[in-house]
Amino acid sequence: MIDSRAMNAAPNTTRLAEYERFPYTVESVDLTFDLHPSETHVRQISTWRKIIPGVTSLELNGKDLKRISIKIDGELVDESRLVEIDESLLIRQVPDAFTLEVVTQISPEANTALEGLYLSNGMFCTQCEAEGFRRITYYPDRPDVMSIFTTRIIADPGYPVLLSNGNLISENQMEDGRREAVWQDPFPKPCYLFALVGGDLAVERDNFVTMSGREIDLRIYVEKKDLNRVRYALESLKRAMKWDENVYGREYDLDIFMIVAVSHFNMGAMENKGLNIFNSSCVLASPDAATDQAFQRIEAIVAHEYFHNWSGNRVTCRDWFQLSLKEGFTVFRDSEFSADTNSRAVKRIQDVNFLRSAQFTEDAGPTAHPVQPLEYQEISNFYTLTIYEKGAEVVRMIRTLLGPELFRQGSDLYFDRYDGQAVTIQEFVGAMADVSGRDFRQFMRWYEQPGTPRLRVYMSHGSATGKLTIQFDQKAPVIAETDSHEPYLIPISYQLIDRESGQILVPETLFELSEMSTTVTHENVTGVPVISLLRGLSAPVRLEMTRPVADLIALARFDDDGVSRWDAIQDLYIQSIGQLLKDPTSPVDQALIDLVCELIRDPQMEQDPACLAEMLALPQDNILWDVFQPADPQAILSARKHLRQALADGASKYWKILFETMMPEGPYQPEASAIGRRSLAVTALAYLAKIEPVDTILEDLFTNASNLTERFAAYRIARSDAAPELSDALSQKFLDGADTDEVLDLWLSTEATNERTATIERVRELTEHERFEWTNPNRVRAVLGAFANRNVEAFYSADGYRMLADSVLKLDAMNPQIAARLVMPLCQWARFGPSYQDKIKSELRRIIGRKLSKDLVEIVSKSID
Ligand code: TRP
Ligand code: ZN
Fold first, then answer.
1. Mutation test residue for ligand 1: of 126, 128, 259, 267, the one with most atoms within 8 Å of CB
2. How does residue 481 score in pLDDT terms, banded at 50, 70 and 90?
3. Whose C-alpha lies nearest to ligand 1, atom 2?
4. What pLDDT score does 598 carry?
5. Residue 270 CA, closest ligand 1 atom number
6. Measured over all CA atoms, what is the biggest interatomic distance in the chain, rounded to whole angstroms?
């Protein structure tokens, strides 16, 4: 019997330090696809020229390919000149310049990994980032090899729409009845941006006139049944195109821009040149089939992928260690777009909340890595919150340090200097250094060191002298075991306000902390100063500071920075939950209840209902687990429920009126102010449900709602608080009305998480539902992802861990990327108390004892030895 460890042993590690240029240029690539569900033939004809003397062999990548033939300059290459190991094919003794012809055969219908060419509901589509192109043909599957692609697609008449990157060159009917389309992309690109689509699709069209007056043909292709849900994405695309011209001076470059929605997709969307491919859940929206949150997500993702046309495509990554060069920058760009388009304060609060609850967790756990990683086993595992969200925060700090004008100059220089090239993060920062004359050497530690640095602040104020001293201390991240961590350059934005009046005592100041410890002083400070710190989260650090309740209350009441107000009340909630954990019978501080009542009455808050809704939402589990170490998820859950009840009772006279006055009337509008009002109305209704029966209101809301946001809220609140009959009835009605996959997923995830009915048995039932499909990542995320990440009660138990582990193993054989993501909650065992740890670890050991994909091995083995 083979040792199971040996089966999973020693996957190859790729290291940044070992980067070498590819020794050939590829002048052009001509691909011909003969599409067939089980036997697609791909012919590649490409021209090569050696650029590093002395090299005599050509190393290509290939995976799961059936090799039909390989020719060089028209001659068949003999097997004796080929060496195939793992995912690489070596061709020996190649000339200095030559034409390569490769024919491979692949089976799209057997491809459940959803990388390379696959079928989704009968539609051919591709996903090549990061290393999917090697599942199509033998090629140097690395982003620094750029070429001009021409793609000929041949298919049966059942697939009338045939798309690829660039411009349509020709289309014709062939003699045998099949159809053919030829596309050419004039911009050199790496193969990860290659895309192909073939299917029977409907299209919605529009156009956009660019800043230089060129007219761009815009198209969104979807399955026919979905054509009535594409308008919002198309409008979002036009807004994004306009914004990129206004804010970054970036114009679209091809004559056509296409988006295709597919139902089987591992991530949100993909920025293939001129042919973005989207998870259908990130495109399709209509008032009765998408919530407000979905509308906003769609707008942001459409913008994100569009923005990649410059930050990612025109200027691309030298290697995958530079992933954040495109992802961090593009997330920063899309978040600013959303802030400009909707509410800046709310967008920032949501982003900060996400960063702290999810990225900080990653940064403190077994898969922590720098924004520019040094090594990886499987690159798919590095599409992380650190690369995306922390990477965006680092770009944001660069803009904070430079100011908007210099930042724009730096971005112009970067795009201009590196257009058509594959570059590194150092080159991006170098452009910022060049326009500003600033030395970024210390700043680069944000890219190089893993973990979240900590900040401690000590203040003293002489009320007689008016002298205020503030001491800023930075501490290395907790995960930094050694002292090799060097101090960061931390931009700290702060302001001082008076505790009683809220008056600004010291206006907003940006302090650059570069040492481990620095003290700053302010003279003539009157009143009782309270510090508003890291305003707008000016740096992605953890603030380690026990702030007096009175100070936090003053910040929540008076501060003029939304993030700071929100952060202050979150801190109060955390302190209050801490009290309850110590003594579950202790009463909730009346001062906190009074604050909540005051905020609700505050006329300024009335103007920003979405901010108030954010302030009324209690901290997420991840944040609490982090504070109360080692965490007891069940105890924390009940403390949180207790606090929620106390707030509901304490502000009881406001909830109904808030619900009634805030809910917008008239036709549904997915725009910021209506979304903000609805979000506050729904928050209020959820609190109201904790103090009195709201069954009639829920039934009414469900029946008369003009949109899914309200109907979904009614169902969700009924599930947790209404009488069981109504709860079951609304669940059934919501499912009956779920005529799209997106609404089905809302139902599945609610059923998998709701506090009263989502037992493990129920979750298992959901995976057996007739509309559940193991091969569809959206279904898997809706049931199992929701269960593991949002159903504390059922998941944090021996049976819960087993259920997830079984699912991970089952999925790993079909779709390793999804299995490796789904297993993550188990890998966080070290945060929990001993009785939790042992049970989680035994499931991890069971997993590691099996034959696993390289994706899953890397994640699981990092979390357990
Ligand atoms: N580059 C894409 C984005 O963030 C995401 C992406 C990377 C992706 N790898 C993928 C999407 C694999 C689907 C499948 O915009
Ligand atoms: Zn991206």
1. 267
2. low
3. 270
4. 97
5. 2
6. 96
